[in-house]
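Entry type: protein chain
Record version: 2
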Amino acid sequence: MKLLFSEATPDYSRYLYPYVVWAFLEPGETPADAFRSGFLPASPDMDRFYLVRSLRLPLAEWRPSSENRRMLRKSEGIRARLVPIAEFDVTEARRARWLDFADQRFGHGIFPAERLARLLAGRVITHVLHFEEDVPGGLPRDVGSVLMHVSPPRLAYYYYAFYDLSDRSRNLGMALMTRAAEWFAHAGFCHLYLGTCVTSRARYKLQFRPMEFFNGMRWSRDLDELRHLLDTPAETRHRLDTPDFLAFQPGSPSELAAASPFTTMP
């Protein structure tokens, strides 16, 4: 991959000079290579990727916890099927439900119809993991749909989930994520990527074990380290210049650099 560093807001008084790291695939590389290096797609066409504190679940090692099993029990009767996006019928009714969900979940205007259209037309969405259940005397009912990027067997990226927010008894958001972990584990996938964990709002994802997060240098399974990152704002110093953060690392900054997967151009 080729990297670009896009300058963000600096704080000259504290010697903080932030850069956003963008990655661009080179010939022979695939999006799975970017995911493996801690990057997530930065555009619907996947022409660039951004480095972020992302999460992934190693599916071969995942064993459902008691909470995971509770979610699976609550969602019994819900069927999951993986459908290529080109074969999935995005009806006007479904599109309207998805946009209504986005207004309620993210805020009005944050996820407009134009954004949904760009996602569905881009390379980032390859499949829909669709959930439905039988209704006595009627047609199957849509329970939820997850827009995903799937690259078997290396990764499944759980991107945007849409479901009925009024169905509070089954906690559908968590139930569908747990069912997705079960589905892709049974299908033999290596990792289920679950987006980012930058704020405390994402703590609900940590009920899966073992969870890995990208800490800027490597994939870590130390959830105490992740909780430290969530609970300790990085406002005055770089993380690698902070003893509390370095205490979680397996070596000094120079030793971490020696083991880093990133290198400068020759």
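Comment: The radius of gyration is 20 Å.
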